[in-house]
Amino acid sequence: MSQRTMVVDLDRCIGCKSCEVACKQENGVVLGCTWNKVLTVGPTGTYPQVEMYFLSAMCQECKDAPCVKVCPTGASYKNADGVILIDKEKCIGCRYCMMACPYGVRTFNEETKVVEKCTLCTQLQAIGEQPACVKNCPTKARFVGDIDDPNSDVAKVIQKAGSDNVHGLPDVGNHPSARYILHSKTATWKE
Amino acid sequence: MKQLVLNRRQFLKATAVTGIAAAFSGSFKTGFTQGEAAQGATASETKIVKTNCRACVANCGVLAHVKNGRVVKLEGNPEYPMSKGALCAKGLAGIQALYHPNRNKYPMIRVGKRGENKWKRISWDEALDTIAKKLMETREKYGAEAVFASTGGGGNPQFWSVPRFCNAFDTPNWFEPGCAQCYLPRTLAFGMMYGGADTSIADSNCLEIYDDETPIKTLILWGTDPSYSCPAGGGAAVAELRAKGVKTVVIDPRLTPDAAKADVWLPIRPGTDVALMLAWTRYILDKKIYDQEFVMKWTNLPYLVDVNTHMMLRVGEHHDGTPDTFMVWDTKTNSAQPVSYPWNDRLAPALEGSFTVNGVECKTGFQLLKERAEAYTLEKAAEICWLDVNKIEEAIRVYTQNAPGGISLGVATDQNPNSMQAAMGVVILNSLMGNVEKPGTLMQRFPMSGVAPLFGYIVQPGIKLLSEGQLKKRLGTIEHKGLLQWWAAQPSAVLQAILTGKPYKPRVWLERSGNKFVTLGNSSSWIPAIEQLDFIVHMYMYPTSFSAYADILLPAQEWLETEMPVESCNMLFARQAVTHLWETMDEGLFWSKLAKRCADMGHENCKKAFDPEFMGKDLPYWDKWEDLLNKCTSAVNMKWEEYTQKIPFEFMPKKKWKNYYLYKQTDLKTGMPVGFGTPSKKLEIYLESIIELGRTGKPFTTYPLPPASKDYDPLPYFAEPHESPLEGSQLAKEFPLVMTNGRIPFFHHGTLRNVPWLREIYPVPEIWINPKDSVKYGVSHGEWVFVESQRGKIRAKANITEGIRPGVVYMERFWTPETLDTDTHGWQEMNVNILSKNDAPFNDVIGTYTLRGYLVKISKADGPPKGIWLKPEEFKKWLPEPSDPTPLVDKEV
Amino acid sequence: MSIQWPLVFFTLFVGLGCGTFVGSVILTEWYGKAKQIRTISSLIAIVALGIGGLSSTMHLGHPERMFGALGHPTSGIFMESTMIFLLGLTIIIYLLAVRRNASDATCKLIGTIGVVLAVALAFVNGDAYVMAAIPAWNTWILPLLYVASAAVMGCFSIGVLLAHTANYDTATIAETAATTSMIKRAALITIAIQAVVLVAYLVHIAIAPYPDVTRSVSRILVGNLALFFWGGLVLLGLVVPAVLMIKFYTKNAQGISPHTSITLGLASVLVAGIVFRILMFSLGSSIKQLF
Ligand SMILES: Nc1nc2c(c(=O)[nH]1)N[C@H]1C(S)=C(S)[C@@H](COP(=O)(O)OP(=O)(O)OC[C@H]3O[C@@H](n4cnc5c(=O)[nH]c(N)nc54)[C@H](O)[C@@H]3O)O[C@H]1N2
Ligand SMILES: Nc1nc2c(c(=O)[nH]1)N[C@H]1C(S)=C(S)[C@@H](COP(=O)(O)OP(=O)(O)OC[C@H]3O[C@@H](n4cnc5c(=O)[nH]c(N)nc54)[C@H](O)[C@@H]3O)O[C@H]1N2
Ligand code: SF4
Ligand code: SF4
Ligand code: SF4
Ligand code: SF4
Ligand code: SF4
Ligand SMILES: [Mo]
Predict the structure, then answer these.
(1) Topology of domain B730-877, CATH
(2) How far is A20 from chain C (nearest CA, A)?
(3) CA gap B235, C84 in Å, rounded
(4) Sheet of B218-222: strands edge to edge?
(5) What is the 8-class DSSP label of residue B457?
(6) Which residues contact A177 (CB under 8 A, 6 or more apart)?
(7) A45 to each of A11, B225, B385, B779, B803, how far by Cα in Å?
(8) What does the alpha-carbon distance between residue C104 and residue B141 come to, in Å, rounded to a whole number?
(9) pTM of the model
């Protein structure tokens, strides 16, 4: 089985948020909607003993995606690569999927009245290109690939980072596949 | 539908008189170009044009996707050696800036009262004629010096266009809000002490950090945050170095991304950097961990200085190409001995000590430096700078124990009156450790192609056009002669001259940049001056707060409309005009057209500017932009057209270009080592030549100017910020917090506040407040607060964070285009420069005023300022309205 | 999560409809009492379900694409809509049977099928929110609360109908009194059950994984939701209706007529029903709300 997903190296990420704008440009994401947001975690601790890192938030490409399970119309679905997508023609805008997503990374487009989210830029990957945010990231902190394929970019960076430094968002049975690399030298991972 | 088919003339008529931000009400919505596109858009073809961004001082490589003449997508160009295919948020937002519905589209003339915002469209001809006439009249009545101009900082690629025009017009008065407050302290200190480039990453220097193979081991980011000031290039390079294990120290009051990732973070009290530098210096000298050989042979520290005159002892005439011969104290013979360049192996000079030479008390430069640093123990620095002693020591150790490396100095220290001294301090700290021109160090003099010779700018300032008599009238420069390096006047002196009429009254202001209220210190102080001016021209891409006070508005081109060669490392690129909209003009062309008008009206000096013979090696003023482009690319033996076909290309193979140890190489003319670009060819740590600068203007003038009131100091000294928070300060009782600024990655100075994608991310300015202070002053996270200094009061949104020290607050500049048409004209609500300080004390050498490190207080506010937009949806009104290219206007004018 | 008003009214009216129908069938068919309310209560149940159903479509961005749901019978929305439809259909059949004077056994059978469907619907209404993503909702107690809320609303709604239709002849006064006291008892029991479930729910919130201030007991008891909890749920949902019920038709009930008292009681539990749903949405933060 293949599971395409994103890995973000938070040791590298400098919180410049150009990935947010790259995503907006590539995907025509409307004002007020977000498919990708860079959050500042921290500063934690007490000045001047503080830590801070930037968490790039986007769909975690859950293996057992609750958003798909609750979708009444099949608008939300998993494609052959394991990417969760939304068929905008089928979406009735009930937003149950937004409730079901443990991370709140889906967004409701008030103009088209359907739910949207990161597509891993499937349209670009289909023509052999990297997703917009990956390609544009100044610090090359973002990677996309099949995490089940040991030869993929994502599998390799994770392998290199070592399991102690690879983190995922909390799993409530949905098995998020996206991964974050963060060494404790940069900051301690906050669950 | 009928509106859509209005022809061009009808459309223009229909919009004859309009408010400055008329597009708010949608009156520009159906531009004729859109109508035409709707009819003619059948063939669709996307081409990709290689160009370069200019939404900030970097020039990142861009691939512009153009479909049917319209820009539809921007991507980074992976070939660009600094940004390597990335663009930052500002660069990506280029489309929204280009097609902004509120672009300045045509020249406009004011028809209502000043500030009333009533405008009428005029032709370029009319605009140029009107301006030229006004300039000539003013010159006739009051002298050319009554006309002054100003420009924007690094953002404007045609920076030197403004001084060039002023020199041609024979007015000495132009200024820039950066300059003494930005970069000049560094270019001056590095220029005079080293003769090479400074170490500003944000200004695309520190070329060593872009090389994958650099052996650099440690990087000190002193008052700079590449993550935010140049994310796509420098920020990325620094991230790469960290990933490779390079150690970093960050000296910054604010917890920036770079600070958070640093090995040591020194959150220094704003404005106290020189004290810390002197402490580092003292430690390094004391512990003798400096590079002894290098300091001895390649700096001027062993040279003897007469303690009364502060001048170095020298013997013998210098002849062409060789420097003066200086004296050292030879410990073998216990006598002063001349040491001819480059070195004399028979001597054993003393580095330290006081000696009597022919009855005169002398000390070595080293001795003087040591004495200067003597008071600054680590403990003392910790006390002054609000730092931890152990952390300071740890930072110094990281720096001194991991060679090679270097200190990159940012803009922070340029923005207080201790500016020049801080830049000198960094040259010293780099030099003491021998971090100069070795592989892995930041001070380098790699060769340049010559296509953009002056800090990467293509227009030359033509300084010889300005007459000697006029230069002497330059406001503020006699006292602060460091300004001569950039040939600029001092903004505060210009302001005072307008207000007092002394020594004479400037009357006409030509301004070409964004929002001066947002970038000049104590901006409200300019209002009474503006009210007294006869005539104001504003040239920019869209209306800003400043436009409301102007008499004529001129439409400048966005970066996607302009052309110029761009150099990065050993490669050449081209900014190419991807489209052209409305009647915008490249300002590099505008100034030449204005000069032409003046020449035609009988201005002798302007005529000279068009005379190839007089201009010599410098290109005379151009009729066509291409003339200048061709001149630039002639440095690589090409016409512009051929050049644009070839880019990108290496003007020199990388190996050859990375020309380390230039100072050691043999100068073919003299047979001696090239040395450094200073009079002594040594690193002039003891900056004797600054004394001469203050007394005469040398080396920047060929004729003597009257001396400054006091000699400049050849060694760095620390000056406590004028508005001090320390005990005993009366002011601190009322204004207890130290304010500072620093970049955010979404805006460039005053620009882009009208771009939906960016305002969505950062809609209003934050003020960072430590939790302890938030309790003390009763404000909570996310709440609106008043921020107040002696000079004014604004609002900001509280960000309560442990990322800043108690007693310090941080905020960046802001204005709101959405309130342009209100009484505030968008600059009075949340503009941190209403609080900053533009009066004395100034930096003695350069005239720097205080943008960072002054005192403020905060209190809870009842809410956001009136009329500002907070929600993403509100910015919809500014979504781009793409339109088809229009023919260039230059041919018509 | 922001308060989804269409869903608040959807579940409120569906709950009211279910409660009313179940109450009516139990009273009239199972216990053979107050048969005069069969028609009106069925009609009210249908109308409530209708309003609820309509209200839910207000929540949809594209109600016109609703038929797409037919292909996905396991989804919450599909189950809810199907069950509303089935329940509505059953009630209509029941009504027809009543009109046509079908046999008691037939009416009882149809009614009972309706009861099963209605209880299930009330449960499913709450069950749709049980999801691992939202810790405060991720418990079986939540659908139980929906059922309890429907039951309480049902008791009061039947009480009101009865008060308006009861026959106070001397001949039937005893019978009416018996019916009334049954309702009284039922109401008090359901209120008690609701109280217990509510406490259980608080316990769930206290021990739910991924604790967060947005869904903490302290936010409910003393934080910015305290007014909703104490005022809405406890006072209007439990105390007021209980007191009103105790006094309902009590000999020494003074100053307040039975009509008024039962009507106030219904209003009170309806408001409490709304408040409960508001509270639920207010607590409905995801494990991590990243945007
Ligand atoms: N309080 C406070 N004040 C500050 C600072 C601070 O940190 N704090 N920073 C200071 C510094 S470092 C500087 S450099 C100054 C900058 O202050 P200014 O120089 O006044 O800034 P802008 O005018 O916004 O910058 C010039 C703008 O020109 C635009 N531009 C680009 N190309 C062209 C062109 O071809 N023609 C024209 N006409 N315009 C073009 C760009 O958008 C660019 O942003 O502000 C200073 N002011
Ligand atoms: N996004 C963006 N990029 C820009 C610009 C912009 O406006 N926006 N402007 C361009 C220009 S013209 C310039 S000059 C460069 C500047 O680029 P940088 O030199 O990197 O400058 P800043 O971010 O202004 O300041 C650097 C840091 O200094 C810290 N600081 C403040 N006060 C002090 C102090 O007293 N001492 C020390 N040691 N640190 C202090 C601030 O917190 C800030 O993080 O950026 C360029 N790039
Ligand atoms: S573009 Fe890259 S470095 Fe910038 S915020 Fe996004 S992930 Fe981080
Ligand atoms: S909003 Fe659209 S995608 Fe989400 S659950 Fe409803 S129908 Fe499916
Ligand atoms: S992260 Fe959310 S949207 Fe993405 S697959 Fe998981 S549940 Fe669905
Ligand atoms: S992969 Fe594509 S859709 Fe997803 S965040 Fe990146 S740019 Fe946006
Ligand atoms: S750093 Fe950003 S704004 Fe500056 S040139 Fe590069 S892409 Fe453009
Ligand atoms: Mo600057």
Answers:
(1) Barwin-like endoglucanases (2.40.40)
(2) 12
(3) 59
(4) B264-266, B247-251, B218-222, B405-409
(5) B
(6) A3, A5, A60, A61, A62, A63, A82, A147
(7) 19, 22, 22, 20, 9
(8) 113
(9) 0.94
Q: What is the ipTM of this complex?
A: 0.94
Cβ atoms of A72 and A90 within 8 Å: the answer is: no
Which residues in chain A have Cβ-Cβ distances shorter than 8 Å to C132?
A: 66, 102, 172-174
Ligand 2 midpoint to CA B423 (Å): 15
Specify the amino acid at residue B616: G
| DSSP class per residue in B62-73 | EEEEEETTEEEE
Residue C24: name the closest of C7, C48, C8 by CA. Answer: C48
C-alpha B597: how far from chain center: 31
Categorise residue A5: left if φ over 0, alpha if ψ from -120 to 50, beta otherwise: beta
Our answer on whether the CB atom of A86 is closer than 6 Å to any ligand 4 atom is yes
Q: Residue B29 has which token pair?
A: 């919505």
Structure tokens at B213: 């193979």
Structural tokens at position A181: 């690399």
Chain A residues interacting with chain C (CB cutoff of 8 angstroms): 34, 37, 39, 55, 57, 66, 70-75, 89-96, 99-105, 107-108, 112-114, 169-170, 172-174
Q: What is the pLDDT of residues B480-489, one digit of tens each?
A: 999 999 999 9
Residue with tokens 């930037």: A54
> Residue range B400-427: average pLDDT?
98
The residue extents of the domains of chain B are 125-178+450-560+584-650, 197-444+677-696, 730-877
R_g (Cα) of chain B, nearest Å: 27
Say how far apart CA B207 and CA B399 lie, in whole Å: 19
Q: Which residues contact B755 (CB under 8 A, 6 or more apart)?
A: B93, B96, B97, B100, B878
Pair of tokens at residue B6: 């209005």
CB contact under 8 A, B258 and A11: no
**Distance, CA of C211 to CA of B178 (rounded, Å):** 50
Q: What percent of chain B has pLDDT over 70?
A: 94
Q: Kindly report the CATH class assigned to B197-444+677-696.
A: alpha beta
Asked whether the beta carbons of B254 and B810 are under 8 A apart, the reply is yes
Six token digits for residue C121: 């619907």
Q: Which CATH architecture has domain B125-178+450-560+584-650?
A: 3-Layer(aba) Sandwich (3.40)
Distance from CA of B190 to the nearest CA of A (A): 29
- Looking at this protein, which amino acid is placed at residue B142? Y
- Least confident segment among A80-89, B131-140, B157-166, B202-211: B157-166
Residue B269, both tokens: 């009290």
Cα-based angle B632, B180, B262 (whole degrees, multiple of 5): 90
pLDDT for position B279: 98
Residues in CB range of C85: below 8 A, 6 or more apart: none
Q: In this complex, does chain B touch chain C, defined as having at least 3 beta-carbon pairs under 8 Å apart?
A: no
